[in-house]
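A protein record in our archive is deliberately plain, so that people and models can read it alike. The record that follows is passed on verbatim for readers who wish to inspect the format.
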Amino acid sequence: MKNNFDRIILAVSVTNLQSTYYSDKTVFNFLKNLKPVVVCAYSIFVYDLTEDKLAITKFVELLEKLGYYEDVEYIKSKFL
């Protein structure tokens, strides 16, 4: 991440929340018990993960699997 962010905001489409195109159907399970801060156009769920260490940890695990190591290091240093 090139910028210095104060919050971790994650926007996920309903299609991705349901893991429609993922072989691992549990990819976004960590979000299922969270209430989105806003839902855009009935299909994009926006979450503020900033204060939820468990959700941040799961998000970091996902980013690591995808190879976003710079983002992982930033989030770990700032939020975990």
